[in-house]
User: Fold this.
Amino acid sequence: MTTRTRRGGMLAALAAALVLVLTGCIPAADVDRSEKTVIPGTLIVGMSPDFPPMEYRDDDNELVGADVELVREAGRRMGMEVQFEEQKFDQLITSVRTDRVDVVFSGISDTPVRQKTVDFVDYYQSVGQFYTLPENAGRFREDADICGQPVSVSTKTDYYTSLLDYNDEVCKANGLPEISIVATDSGAAARLQLDQGRAVAAVQGRENLAYFATTEPGKYEVVLSDLTALPFGAAVRKDNTQLSEAIRDAFQDMYDDGTMVRILEKYGIESGARAPEINGVKGEA
Assistant:
């Protein structure tokens, strides 16, 4: 075969490949998907709107919350339309990994274990706290006072694993009675256990407790030291680097010009504002 013939064959192959790309017929495995969204020009956001004030339905059934406003503003700065896809919380990570959604904003903590399957754009510093009814607050002066007590917590949150660690390090390691963990499937259910007296304390995020302080003033009181401190992150598919960086850059702009703080102030949670970072939580998975 002459050089001219080989070159002609190469050009023909390239042309054929270009046709496949333009018509969408090229096999998915051969496409560089790093900067793609499920729908071009649209950011599909997975969200479980049951976590006020981050994301929830108001009395008019409108989707509202700090995350809702933050991601809409980020989408505007990225030049993308934002579309929300409501799902159960425990389905969200799978959805972003399988391209049902482009990104998840739903109060998901960045952890080394989760970083094995998705990347996080950390944007809000959450703190897990013990809380109780005011009439019980006097029982909890020292960290060890919670040992031997029934404490409710959602098993679907990182607060559950943090409470297990606390039980080992503060109670069991010092020969004290173990915490009686009242496991539930949601933060709302954990709160109900406290309200109905089946637990004397519960664990929830500081942002969630700030919301209840406005809707039900004086009903709960924070006690003891903070249980945990982990950032909430926007979860993006592991190989979608350009999308992660675009979201980070939009949040950095919002952080720098004060937009992030102004949005969080509306919900009384501006103390959680932080500069964005990709996979900022380090440690062993």
